[in-house]
Amino acid sequence: MDKKTVYLFYGDDRYSLNQKLKFWQNEFVKKYGENSLEIIDGARLDADNFATNLESLPFLSDKRLVLVKDFLDLGKEDKQKQIASAIENTPDFCLLIFQENEVPKKTNPIYKKISKIGTLQEFKTLSPSEITKWITDKAKKENIKISFFTANYLTQQCGPELWTISNELDKLALFSNGQEITKEMIDDICIPSLTSSIFKLTDEVAQKNAKASLRTFRILKDSGQELNGIFFMLVRHFRILTQVEELVRKGESAAEITKKLKQHPFVIQKTSTQARNFNREKLVEIYEEMLAIDKGVKTGIIKSFKGDNREFELAIEKFIINCCK
């Protein structure tokens, strides 16, 4: 029996997911009052009494909204099955929503039950082009002046997280004071994400631009990023880039590569483009040099202490210069 009032919202795009939930909650409270809304932390969900709770009549209202947060990956299997069974008897006056910030397993009893009788809605992370459109749409709605070109640059600077992009766009709107947002404004006041900075650094290395590469590295370091974190992201990035280059060379599609490497589609799209700027031999050489630095730090050959990372920093700068030769 279909239940039009049972939903499961999940996915990597937490901003859109939370915005939709916020809208539903606000509209529900406007129409039925604050007593009609119940929010349950999945870690504290009482499976034994869940069915009884669902069937409780609304207090001074015609409807109830029950929101359960992050339960599908919690609890024992018997509790999951117990909740899945209770869902089937959700009364018509109760709107039941499960919210998951991770993508649940399709074998989960609750996921399977809602897929049969309710509504599943996945909030997938947007691609770079979709994020740029999202920025221009939001800007138009809020009367913020920004061109498509500049919105695309903001996408590159901030990465795929819509929470971050929304906050940066709000800052830019305030800073621009009604004027059109420019690339220079973004450079002046926006904090680039670590991921986007690593992509920028890698692009500059591919172009053999040692000066620009070193400048980007120093901006990253001076922005408060831990040196270990920067180096870890560099190693991770070149490892993924090496894998992507091999799969692109074999003719695999972006979707196939994303599935095989289990990486964010945003990362695969960017690295697939970037991989064309490196040949296999150069990538292997770069990766081996990074592993040598990592081994040097761990064995004490390259000294790295809290408050004194000068040798480690110098090793990374030499690595960047060597890559650009």
Describe the structure in brief.
The chain is an alpha/beta fold. It is built from 15 helices and five strands.
Task: Reconstruct the topology from this structure.
Blueprint: E1 6-10, H1 14-32, E2 37-41, H2 50-54, E3 64-69, H3 77-87, E4 94-100, H4 109-117, E5 119-122, H5 128-141, H6 148-158, H7 162-176, H8 183-189, H9 194-206, H10 210-222, H11 227-249, H12 254-261, H13 265-274, H14 280-299, H15 310-323
Helix pairs in contact: 3-4, 5-6, 9-10, 9-11, 10-15, 11-13, 11-14, 12-13, 14-15
Characterization of this structure:
This protein has 325 residues and is an alpha/beta fold. It folds into 3 domains: 6-122, Rossmann fold, CATH 3.40.50; 128-189, Orthogonal Bundle (Helicase, Ruva Protein, domain 3), CATH 1.10.8.60; 194-323, Zinc Finger, Delta Prime, domain 3. The protein has helices spanning 14-32, 50-54, 77-87, 109-117, 128-141, 148-158, 162-176, 183-189, 194-206, 210-222, 227-249, 254-261, 265-274, 280-299, 310-323, and strands at residues 6-10, 37-41, 64-69, 94-100, 119-122. Strand 3 (64-69), helix 3 (77-87) and strand 4 form a beta-alpha-beta unit. Helix 9 runs antiparallel to helix 10, helix 11 (227-249) packs across helix 13 and helix 12 (254-261) crosses helix 13 (265-274). The longest helix has 23 residues, at 227-249.
